[in-house]
Amino acid sequence: MRVLYFAWVRQKVGIAEEEIAPPAEVRDVAALVRWLAGRSPAHAAAFADPKQLRAAVNQDFAPPDHPVAANDEVAFFPPVTGG
Amino acid sequence: MARVLVQEAPFDMGAETAALSAGRTDVGGIASFLGVCRGDDGLAAMVLEHYPGMTGRAIGRIVADAEARWPLTGCTVIHRVGRILPGEPIVLVLTASAHRAAALEACAFLIDWLKTKAPFWKREEFAAGSHRWVEARAEDDAAAARWATPGA
Questions:
Q1: Which of A17, A66, A73, B122 has the CA that lies 20 to 30 A from B104?
Q2: Cβ distance of A7 and B49 shorter than 8 Å
């Protein structure tokens, strides 16, 4: 699974992307957030408040209950502020 | 039909506008929104980041939604990324139609949805060297929500 980080999520995690292999019980975005938060203190800081995060799975916005699978591209970022 | 660009370079609003009616006689009006970088609170620059793999698709979906709702003869969306100085343009939305109501409404819809449904993030840089990420505004969500359709 490829995970991408943008804006302050990227700054807090300290990297822009990583390849991960979460265990089988990580089946949706919310579970992935909890699993990622345990990877390092930097991840824990970035994922401390899931309400501040938005996600995309395979480049479409995805709610917390959206499924994730091994070959997915999952991105985490703050609410968008373009325009 | 729509022209969608995400780029660092500035754009030529006059040329983009002219292109929407060039060589055709069915265009009755072209509406525009030009977003400009404000220099509030000693802002030195705005840095726009995006999600390159997703941005084009997200904007394309928003544009397709506008084209389904209003009879547009043309549509242009250009969003800049990278470092933008106060006074410089950030985003351009142009909508052309036979009649003004469709062009004006589609233009307002597009900028409201671009602000809330396209993966861009703004970081403000200040003269003293500090910076901060711009936070999403509830007013933007409310503006986007007024275009929601029942069941959508």
A1: B122
A2: yes
